[in-house]
Design goal:
Number of domains: 2
Shape: globular
Bound molecules: S-adenosylmethionine
Radius of gyration: 20 Å
Strand content: 5-15%
Oligomer: single chain
Distance between the termini: 37 Å
Length: about 350
């Protein structure tokens, strides 16, 4: 007999999450992680959501999905692909986004800071003008789509897909590099138009009121109730934990900081947001608080790595007062360039149950 519920669940999997380029993204590990998710989840929280790859999977599974990341550019992806039920960017929106912005003289931040470091002037001026126009789109979901696609275009454009180096223009002038990756010399507008259909096609409604937050997770947890499952994928302290160093440019573009200073060769903004999970001196205390605050959520799944600080044994000790914990390993055969994804290192899941 035709099972409507099963069909609905299957239908969500006809949508495809646009491939991210984000340190530590779990898009490729989802089939493995999925094996350890509990049955009968109604509401799931993705606490350190990053590219939103796990949230998108939760949404596909039909969960009411609460997603959170303390950085704005990640929150915008959450609004665009998790919270958004149907808003896409159409021809009219593109006309608005590409028009000469009436207030473009107020929008020169990217040109002022990053021309000559990450961009040629033409691209910097283009993205400033586009940024001024995002506010002219008719609703927050279209605006979030514009941010998500533009920010992804910027990681396509810049060599290595992050902004923690000053090689962008050097590589864009190196014919060998360009032969391997033509995106380095393509105009941002062209990259945006190529990526847009993938994002538009990824928008769907799973029948739930999903929400995307931009909070420090330690502030968000006390405000939530009725969550059945939480997935924690914190930065792997001691290897690639400085997300604000790697992705400062996307945060500056999204926030359009007017009150920060821009430091070092890469012009990272200062002061940074407080994480609690990216520095050795804070991390044990932060995990203790995290687990205390999650006590009302029955199921926890935690991504970890055998080279992170603190050790897995310490993590197990920190969890034990609250939950039974089982450790699952997956060994990387080769480096994929992601967070901790060094050959021989292991991706860990801590499965925590009452
Ligand atoms: C390993 S990444 C998550 C990757 C994600 N699972 C994915 O598939 O893309 C860790 C994330 O934690 C975020 N983060 C760091 N400290 C945080 C905090 N205190 N509260 C919320 N998010 C935080 C970072 O911005 C980063 O995106």
């Amino acid at each position: 007999m035709f099972d409507g519920a099963l069909f609905d669940e299957y239908k969500n999997f006809t949508f495809k999450f646009p491939e991210p380029q984000y340190l530590g993204a779990k898009a490729n590990l989802l089939p493995w992680i999925a094996r350890f998710l509990p049955d009968s989840v109604e509401t799931a929280l993705d606490a350190f959501a990053g590219s939103q790859s796990v949230s998108y999977y939760f949404k596909q599974l039909g969960y009411k999905t609460i997603t959170n990341d303390f950085l704005s550019f990640n929150n915008q992806i959450g609004k665009a692909l998790i919270e958004n039920k149907g808003e896409k960017l159409d021809e009219n929106d593109l006309e608005i986004l590409f028009a000469d912005a009436p207030n473009k003289s107020d929008f020169t931040l990217m040109d002022d800071i990053f021309t000559g470091i990450f961009f040629q002037k033409e691209d910097a001026v283009f993205i400033d003008n586009f940024r001024a126009n995002i506010q002219r789109l008719s609703n927050p979901y279209k605006q979030a789509m514009a941010f998500a696609v533009m920010n992804r275009s910027l990681t396509r454009k810049i060599t290595m897909g992050h902004f923690g180096h000053t090689q962008a223009l050097v590589y864009a002038n190196d014919p060998e590099r360009v032969k391997r990756n033509r995106s380095l010399i393509r105009p941002v507008k062209e990259l945006f138009l190529e990526l847009l259909p993938k994002y538009n096609d990824a928008v769907f409604d799973n029948g739930m009121d999903n929400v995307s937050y931009r909070e420090n997770i330690l502030d968000l947890l006390p405000t939530l109730d009725h969550v059945d499952l939480v997935y924690f994928d914190p930065p792997y302290c001691d290897s690639h934990a400085d997300y604000q160093g790697f992705y400062h440019l996307l945060e500056t573009y999204t926030e359009y900081w007017r009150d920060k200073t821009f430091v070092n060769g890469i012009k990272r903004y200062e002061p940074q947001r407080y994480s609690g999970f990216d520095k050795k001196r804070d991390i044990v205390d932060s995990f203790k608080k995290l687990f205390e605050l999650s006590d009302s959520i029955p199921n926890w799944v935690i991504s970890y790595n055998n080279r992170s600080y603190p050790t897995i044994d310490t993590m197990v000790e920190l969890i034990k007062p609250f939950r039974n914990v089982r450790v699952e390993h997956k060994t990387y055969q080769q480096s994929r360039g992601g967070k901790g994804s060094v050959a021989g290192s292991s991706e860990i899941l801590l499965i925590c149950t009452k």
